[in-house]
Design brief:
The complex is a heterodimer of chains A (268) and B (559). Chain A has 268 residues and is of the alpha+beta class. Helix content of chain A is 25%, strand content 24%. In chain A, strand 1 and strand 2 form a beta hairpin. The N and C termini of chain B lie far apart (50 Å). Classes of the chains: A alpha+beta (268), B mainly alpha (559).
Chain lengths: 268, 559
């Protein structure tokens, strides 16, 4: 670099004022953030004690129009998948992941959290007006990520909280005890196919048996043993309309296959 | 550098290899806006899955391209400004290690064994070779700084009392920040992820991994920006026909970045559980301090441009803008740097939104984020890389830039594209559109129960913008390839990068030495990261097993 004449040895006066102004702008920003936190009471995710860890989703009434909801995120659904609350409700939300990192953004509110395994996140939200609020998973969590969402329905007519997609509300108690259910849970089928009618990555198993499946190739075969076998053995060959072709190939023995069919029948 | 033919070959390779990879990076950028706008309702196109392509887009564009460019520019500037030879063996070794690492990581990505995105958040698990490849790439990028230090010390001995050339200050700042920032991520990868991915440890601490990643992830942003700042401070004023307004301001800004780049990563984790909001608040304050060198830079560069324009007869409050060499074919590099600055105004302001603690809740992990960083790393940084790569490659190979009018058009097309693209994503983000999501399968698919018609208009703006951005790169490649196949110039003047002279050449003792600033940086990092890391270690979060992206069943050790 060529040397030019030194016209000054001290800091240029205008630069001094610029540095001072920049510091003031920075302090103004800090002041505004402090105001948003303490003045407006907007809080962000904090450290929730490990004792709060839970393993299933649930809803609980704390007081009139005041509920505590535990959301369990897993690849690729929320449990519960739909919650209805009366307008004017305040909700304490606790979230945890069963597997990988997920996101939890209730669109149209300030609730926006990361959901991680082995650690609970918490937020509080108040819903004054009726409406349908979508919870979107906004962190990549695998092949079914784009289908992972849930709904909070705020309703004028609801008297109390109600929820879909919770362990207790699964179709029939007798179906739950079938060995087919355990096989499908262990192989991961139930991560994408709900048993309560909720649409997730794949079609729900509830009431599926015996219906006509609408495939992307234009055909509409009946859901029977041959159809299910075909779907399990060559996933991706035939795809149901409106769903992504992401089903992985999973080894299933003949005996297991029989149990799966029994379970699907029981979910009719 | 004129004598060091081998070094020139290394530099040209470091510039050309990532430009070649960029072809895929840009191709998948276009595919992403098509998926997201619902033009494609599929999980993959031509054998490449959406998320697999997104991983490659991030690794190629944000890591490989930016790092190799920083190293190449570093070699060129240090050799030129110190007028001393630098170790060609060291440069070649660094390039070789980086290339082996990049090829390993790329092979795993294209084999579908590392679809974990470029942030590789565990417990999503990739092949160990992906993590090892990334580590090698980073280790290779550490080497150059240590090959520049011996000639620099010799230079200081030979030039007592002389100020370190400003370009060398900029380059050293870049690589000091990189050295500090990459240690935590190297620890994350080598100590936590590789043993876990190999199956030697059953689980991984998710909160700790994320904190170490963002300890690296934010200074990474400054590592992208600092080579561009170096060009802004050293070359832009002269291209504008003027002088650098204040030499002190440039040095002060660089040194401030050494101190302030690292101790603020928690502002990426405002929405994370397991970390106290007190430490998040502390990092917010530190983040806002970075506003100071950024605003000083904004002022100094504007003042330098104004000085250049006025000395060419520019007048009026804003009328002097017309006297800048916007369309001067001899100075085709000018718009690459100047328009980058224009784009950066919007990138900077939206960045303050992201860093503003409570306000982050509105936009966290929405489409707002990619909108923001396509106006920073995808704006000024990318344009500087394109422009300066063309300048260096043609200069070092003694080629002439043919079609300079087209070369000038590139940054204008790119800017138009980024504004439409980011405008669409900003608006979409405010409507809740998630980032990193194959929207075409569900939210932008009328057949899906999750269909969101309110996201159609925003994703279509991004689609149009993304296509215009790709057009800019196509034009750029046309210019680059035509120039490369063109005839060699037999110009008498040896290649050099013209450096600006200072208008106010202050001599301030505080900005003469790196040492106190590096010491302050280490202290700041310890003060900012000891408390949260100590908290995390004391919380004893349960180790979590790994998961492949295509199955919700936990992997057993060794799988």
């Amino acid at each position: 670099m060529s040397k030019s004449s030194k016209n000054k040895t001290g800091v240029n006066g205008i630069e001094k004022r610029v540095i001072l102004t920049a510091l003031l702008v920075s302090c103004l920003g800090m002041g505004l953030i402090a105001y948003s936190t303490w003045g407006m009471g907007i809080t962000i995710a904090d450290c929730v004690p490990n004792s709060k860890i839970f393993e299933r989703g649930s809803v609980k009434k704390l007081a009139e129009k005041n509920y505590e909801i535990h959301f369990l995120a897993s690849m690729w659904a929320f449990e519960p998948s739909r919650v209805t609350v009366p307008a004017g409700s305040s909700l304490d939300l606790f979230v945890i992941s069963k597997d990988v990192t997920h996101g939890f953004n209730i669109i149209g509110t300030n609730v926006n959290m990361m959901v991680e395994p082995a650690v609970v996140n918490e937020a509080r939200v108040h819903f004054e007006h009726p409406g349908t609020y979508t919870i979107v998973c906004h962190e990549y969590c695998g092949v079914g990520h784009q289908a992972m969402n849930a709904v909070i329905e705020v309703s004028d007519s609801a008297q109390d909280i109600s929820a879909d997609g919770l362990p207790a509300s699964e179709s029939s108690a007798s179906a739950n005890t079938l060995p087919g259910k355990a096989i499908m849970d262990q192989k991961g089928c139930l991560a994408c196919h709900s048993v309560d009618g909720t649409v997730s990555v794949g079609p729900s198993f509830k009431g599926l048996w015996g219906t006509k499946a609408e495939l992307t190739d234009g055909t509409s075969p009946t859901v029977d043993a041959a159809y299910v076998k075909d779907m399990i053995e060559s996933p991706g060959k035939k795809v149901v309309k409106g769903f992504p072709p992401v089903m992985p190939k999973l080894p299933v023995s003949d005996e297991e296959f029989g149990q799966i069919i029994e379970y699907l029948k029981a979910l009719r | 550098m004129e004598q060091q033919k081998a070094l020139r070959a290394v530099i040209v390779a470091e510039l050309l290899v990532p430009l070649l990879l960029l072809i895929f990076g840009i191709y998948h950028g276009v595919l992403q806006v098509m998926y997201r706008a619902g033009v494609i309702h599929a999980s993959s196109v031509a054998g490449i899955d959406y998320y697999q392509g997104l991983t490659a887009h991030g690794v190629i564009n944000a890591l490989v391209l930016t790092t190799l460019f920083a190293v190449a520019l570093g070699h060129a500037m240090v050799a030129q400004e110190l007028e001393l030879p630098i170790s060609v063996g060291g440069a070649a070794l660094s390039l070789a290690v980086m290339l082996i690492g990049a090829v390993m990581a790329a092979a795993m990505i294209f084999a579908g064994k590392a679809t974990v995105l470029y942030t590789f958040y565990p417990p999503l698990k990739a092949s160990p070779f992906f993590y090892i490849g990334l580590s090698l790439f980073i280790v290779g990028s550490w080497i150059p700084l240590y090959t520049w230090i011996p000639p620099y010390l010799r230079w200081r001995k030979a030039n007592p009392g002389k100020k370190t050339p400003l370009a060398v200050v900029g380059i050293f700042t870049t690589f000091i920040v990189w050295q500090i920032a990459t240690l935590p991520v190297a620890f994350e990868v080598l100590v936590l992820l590789v043993p876990w991915s190999m199956g030697w440890t059953p689980g991984v601490n998710v909160v700790l991994s994320r904190t170490l990643f963002w300890f690296f992830g934010h200074p990474l942003v400054y590592f992208w920006l600092l080579p561009t700042y170096t060009l802004y401070y050293t070359m832009l004023p002269r291209l504008a026909g003027g002088k650098l307004y204040s030499d002190f301001a440039a040095r002060f800004s660089f040194f401030a970045f050494i101190v302030l780049s690292s101790p603020l990563g928690l502002h990426h984790q405002f929405a994370d559980p397991g970390i106290s909001s007190n430490w998040k608040g502390l990092h917010t304050v530190l983040t806002l301090l970075v506003v100071v060198p950024s605003l000083v830079t904004a002022f100094t560069l504007s003042a330098s441009l104004e000085h250049g324009a006025r000395s060419k007869g520019g007048a009026g409050l804003f009328g002097w803008w017309r006297k800048l060499p916007h369309f001067d074919r001899e100075k085709w590099l000018f718009p690459y740097l100047f328009l980058g600055l224009v784009i950066f105004i919007f990138g900077g302001i939206t960045g303050i939104v992201n860093a503003s603690y409570a306000m982050n809740g509105v936009i966290h992990n929405t489409a707002w984020l990619p909108a923001h960083f396509h106006l920073t790393v995808g704006g000024p940084v990318f344009l500087a890389i394109l422009g300066m790569s063309l300048y260096l490659i043609t200069g070092l190979l003694n080629k002439r830039v043919v079609m300079p009018a087209l070369a000038i058009a590139v940054p204008y097309i790119w800017m138009t594209g980024t504004f439409l693209f980011s405008g669409g994503l900003f608006a979409g983000g405010l409507r809740g559109e998630p980032r990193r999501t194959n929207l075409g399968l569900t939210y932008l698919n009328p057949q899906s129960p999750s269909f969101r018609p309110d996201w159609q208009i925003t994703t279509h703006f991004a689609l149009i913008g993304g296509c215009i951005m790709a057009l800019a790169v196509l034009v750029y490649f046309a210019v680059l390839i035509s120039s490369l196949v063109g005839a060699r110039e037999c110009s008498a003047a040896p290649f050099s990068m013209p450096m600006s002279e200072p208008l106010h050449d202050e001599d301030i003792a505080a900005v003469r030495n790196f040492t106190p600033w590096v010491a302050a940086a280490v202290l700041a990092v310890v003060l900012a990261y000891y408390p949260p890391l100590n908290d995390i270690m004391k919380s004893h979060f349960k180790p979590v097993p790994g998961y492949r992206p295509d199955s919700p069943i936990a992997l057993k050790a060794g799988e």
